[in-house]
Every structure is written in structure tokens, then in C-alpha cells.
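Thread: "does anyone have the structure for this chain?"

Original post by V.I.:
We have the sequence but no experimental structure in hand. Need at least a predicted one for the grant figures.
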Amino acid sequence: MSQERSFIKSGRNTIIHKDKKLDLVVVNGENHPRIKVTQNGLEPFKEDLPKNRREAKERYLEMVYVSSPDIFAEEKRLLFIQALDGKEYKVDYSKVGTKLFVRIHQESYL
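Reply from O.Q.:
Generated one for you, C-alpha cells below.
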């Protein structure tokens, strides 16, 4: 059974958010900060992760586990996220804790 998702993956490290009803929570392994992708851009995700898909839907979230086999099958050092605000963000996990961790890569990709 194929599940319709709120995002599509493109290439080897790009996630494209496509549904403004659900926010994406990007999880890139246990040791990296989690990122919430909203219709207004990216922000840190500080809440507890939903226990299952049903709880995520109740909270208007969709989980994106980067290292799961159906996404990229490994943790990524560099991730590009196209958000619904028309910007493409570059997330560099080697720069966690600096202002270069998340920055706008392209102002308008549409």
C-alpha cells in the first residue's frame, strides 16, 4: 500500500516539502538536531518525537527519517530542503552550533 507523503526526495540529498497542511520533522540520526520544516521556513524541533504515525498526524507532522531505506538510506552531512516559502535551505550538519548550520541556499527556486 503506497502512502501519499507531504514531501518528495530529489537526487541524493534534497527534500522538497509539498503539503502546507503538514509540517515535516527531519531526523538525521540520533546525534544531530532535528529540524521542523513549516510553510514559513525551517526552525529547530525541540518537542518530543511522536511515538507513531497516528500521533504525528494528530500533531500535523510528518516524520522524515533521513537514514531510513526509503529515503536516503544513510545519515547525511549535507542536506538541501526546499520549503514552501519559496526558498531552498542548505543544512550542513558539520556546522551544528554555528550560524552556517542552516542557511538559505537559493532565494527563489520556483
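V.I.: this helps a lot. Helices lie at 53-58.
O.Q.: and The radius of gyration is 13 Å.
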